[in-house]
Design goal:
178 residues, alpha/beta, Rossmann fold, five-stranded parallel β-sheet, 6 helices, binds iron/sulfur cluster
Length: 178
Amino acid sequence: MTKLSQAKADVKEFVGKGPSHWQPFVTTKLRYLADWGRKYSLWPYPFGTACCGIEYMSVLMSRYDISRYGAELVRFSPRQADLLVVAGTISYKMAPVLKQIHGQLCDPKWVISVGACASSGGFYNNYCTVQGIDEIIPVDVYVAGCPPHPENILRSVIRLQEKIQAGADFPRGMKVEL
Ligand code: SF4
């Protein structure tokens, strides 16, 4: 008996036993599985420079509990993080530091811009304030508000998770407003 006919016979025997004898199995794509793991294991690097940083701290506490979304493992080394959370005003003097830190994050990496100041300069329309961090680095999700509600920040994490699961099909620059 050839290998092919042996294989056909094996399949026939397996199918012939009926569903009660079949072993359960799951099929998926490797990329889907990897993205599923990534979205529930975000390691944030907080770049908090002003009041929005306090709002971000509150979502880490038990009342809002960001660990429900798998994003509580805050790191203070960019080499151990893949999510940059920019919360607060960014001055042009600080801009090169932010750019360098973004470059040091692990790939694949994502950025959440928390609050009006980080997203657009807020009411600091002057010579020293960056008018939105997307002038310096790519942003995945913008969080509206001054300051944004903690729920708004949680919502941005959920939007980012949707983006990660969708892979390259999801556009950058999602806006989150409650
Ligand atoms: S957006 Fe408002 S709360 Fe946030 S850093 Fe700017 S001034 Fe502070």
